[in-house]
Amino acid sequence: MEKEYKALVINEVNAAFEQTIQTLHIDNLPKGDVLVKVHYSSINYKDALSATGNKGITKKYPHTPGIDAAGEVVSSLDDKFKVGDKVIVTGYDLGMNTSGGFGQYIRVPADWVVKLPEGLSLKESMIIGTAGFTAGISVSRLSVLVQPSDGKILVSGASGGVGSVALSLLSKLGYQVIAISGKEAEYPFLKKLGATEIIPRADFQEVDKRPMLSAQYAGAIDTVGGPILENILKSLQPLGAVTTCGSVSATQLNMTVFPFILRGISLIGISAQNYPGALREPLWIKLATDWKPTNLLELYSEIRLEDIPETVALILQGKLKGRTIVNMLD
Q: Distance (Å, rounded) from C-alpha 88 to C-alpha 38?
């Protein structure tokens, strides 16, 4: 086994943050039960924040981001895993304050590791990644309260990582899905994923001070927060439900409780990072079988390690669509 490997390292230099590809040594990885050779990673919004010095995500530098990793077990102190097992690692502290998937090796606690389910390749698992896993949690929670026959479902930020997978999953499960997007150029992409209608983002992002709006939608998966989430909540039908997992628009809600009280709606918070370990493997199995997006291979673009800095800039500018995976073997 080689002892040296390549990784993207973020260094803090004179109050600025530099992104460089460096050669590191396996012995310097953090302590953990399972050493994994990373075949693929993927780029998420949290990775972009960590790679540009956001101390709310990563407290200490130098650091290697990458909250997603899929690869092969090289060594394990836990009997659950053996050398050669194909595995997925997402969530927990990976890539935040623990060296992440933008390095060709990671060492993590066994509790963070999930065996790759049958029906899914390592590449496909990273096309799904944390974003798709978040979409899976969202659909799972929403489907308990809202059925396809109940009415239309909104997906905000529909061309992004979470939104695009959520749109695909909901469409596969028989929901009538309406995409909210500010990227007119991506409308054909959204239609291909199963959107029956597309609403321009501008129609939902203006602040509306009315306590409630016309009840039009049975539910929603929100990925952006802020006024868009407020307007979605005000537009739900009685007993409707919304999952929310993002705050790129804003972190605050400025609205009354009337939609919750008078219409009995539900707002469900989603966190993939701390999703219980006992529920992770069953959801991954579902995403590999019954819920596997039929157009999964149309959801992604593939880059190499050296392309990450440029891609980080694009995701912060809101210019990426779908999922972007990183080939760590190339």
A: 9
Q: Is residue 72 part of a domain?
A: yes
Residue type, 303: I
pTM of the model: 0.94
CATH of the domain at 106: 3.90.180.10
Judge whether 278 lies within some domain: no
The residue range of the domain holding 137 is 132-269
Rounded CA gap, 33 and 255, in Å?
47
Cα distance between residue 112 and residue 132, in whole Å: 17
173-198 pLDDT, tens digit per residue, is 999 999 999 999 999 999 999 999 99
The CATH code of the domain that includes 220 is 3.40.50.720
Regions of the chain short of the pLDDT cut 70: 1
Diameter over CA atoms, the chain: 63
Distance CA 38, CA 327 (A): 9
Q: Judge whether 283 lies within some domain.
A: no
Q: Are 66 and 305 in contact (CB under 8 A)?
A: no
Phi-psi domain of 272 (left: phi exceeds 0; alpha: psi -120 through 50; beta: other): alpha
